[in-house]
């Protein structure tokens, strides 16, 4: 299964023509010849500082030679990674919580909302994957749902409330949520999230695909993993039909496409609902869609609506996870 946090856009994989460097002037050519035989003066320019990016090849300055197409793709990827790193919006160091632990299910859309916020603001956090059958990892808490976020010893619950409280904590100004931003955050919690299960469990094959991901990434024993994949897929296939009736969904795919187009139109030509950078509504939509993006439902959504470009911008802006790996 493809990594949903991939930063590589399809455009980077396409060949792109490169213009050759302009021919040097006669004086520059002569100076270059002198340097090749060791007769030229040493350059007085200070050495250039390079920013190394893991996985990027070492390259010569672009003006020194014609760059092969494959190398151009690698350079484009490097530039994308740098842009993603710079797109994050970390708080001042003195406002960053010292100890953050997220109790979650990997595929939970509400947990992914919280992770999108933490990743975008580059707040380091540890993850405790909760076993959904026993929930032994959260027996210490009276609250038996996820996400639970423990911030410097304080327990926070409910994804939207968690994000509100963290936003206040890391904000250098008075934290105020705009009316438009609040409206779309409610839309995510009250509408968009309810379209996910009917879509990812729409058919038996899609239910198996979803539970294959859940079983592989969840906290299960070997025996539980097998049972969860097949029994869970069968159960949720049936549950998804009841959810369609509960939320008055006639055609689940059409409803998902309509929601994606509704969100895209709300951007009104901007990169993000927040303008030049994501706001809390952008992070909420991105967070709940992230678990399904590379499942069949998510692939169909991107192929049949205009949401793909915004989603790619969000992947770049949120960047690599700030999760602390054990």
Automatic annotation (TrEMBL):
The keyword Lipid biosynthesis applies. SUPFAM superfamilies: GST C-terminal domain-like, Thioredoxin-like. Signal peptide: none annotated. Gene3D superfamilies: 1.20.1050.10, Glutaredoxin. It is a single-pass membrane protein. One of its GO terms (biological process) is prostaglandin biosynthetic process. The keyword Amino-acid biosynthesis does not apply. It is found in: Endomembrane system. Pathway: Lipid metabolism; prostaglandin biosynthesis. Its EC number is 5.3.99.3. Keywords: Fatty acid biosynthesis, Fatty acid metabolism, Isomerase, Lipid biosynthesis, Lipid metabolism, Membrane, Prostaglandin biosynthesis, Prostaglandin metabolism, Transmembrane, Transmembrane helix. Residues 98-174 form the GST N-terminal domain. This is Prostaglandin E synthase 2. It comes from Ananas comosus (Pineapple). The gene is LOC109708246.
């Amino acid at each position: 299964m493809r990594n949903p946090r991939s930063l590589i856009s399809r455009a980077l994989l396409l060949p792109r023509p490169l213009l050759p460097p302009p021919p040097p002037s006669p004086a520059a050519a002569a100076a270059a010849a002198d340097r090749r035989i060791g007769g030229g003066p040493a350059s007085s320019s200070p050495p250039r500082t390079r920013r190394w990016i893991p996985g990027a090849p070492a390259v010569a300055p672009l003006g020194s030679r014609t760059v092969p197409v494959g190398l151009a793709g690698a350079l484009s990827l490097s530039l994308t990674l740098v842009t993603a790193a710079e797109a994050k919006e970390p708080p001042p160091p003195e406002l960053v919580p010292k100890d953050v632990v997220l109790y979650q299910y990997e595929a939970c859309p509400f947990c992914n909302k919280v992770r999108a916020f933490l990743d975008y603001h580059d707040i380091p956090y540890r993850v405790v994957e909760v076993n959904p059958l026993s929930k032994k990892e959260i027996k210490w808490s009276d609250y038996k749902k996820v996400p639970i976020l423990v911030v410097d010893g304080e327990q926070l619950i409910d994804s939207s409330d968690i994000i509100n409280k963290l936003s206040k904590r890391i904000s250098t100004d008075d934290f105020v949520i705009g009316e438009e931003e609040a409206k779309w955050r409610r839309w995510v919690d009250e509408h968009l999230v309810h379209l996910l299960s009917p879509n990812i469990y729409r058919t038996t094959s899609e239910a198996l695909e979803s539970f294959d991901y859940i079983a592989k990434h969840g906290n299960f024993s070997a025996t539980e993993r097998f049972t969860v994949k097949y029994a869970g897929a069968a159960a949720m296939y049936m549950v998804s039909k009841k959810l369609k009736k509960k939320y008055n969904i006639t055609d689940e795919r059409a409803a998902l496409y309509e929601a994606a187009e509704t969100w895209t139109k709300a951007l009104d030509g901007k990169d993000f609902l927040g303008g030049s950078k994501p706001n809390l509504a952008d992070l909420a939509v991105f967070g709940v869609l992230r678990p399904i993006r590379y499942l069949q439902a998510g692939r169909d959504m991107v192929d049949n609506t205009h949401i793909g470009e915004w989603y790619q911008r969000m992947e770049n802006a949120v960047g690599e996870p700030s999760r602390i790996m054990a």
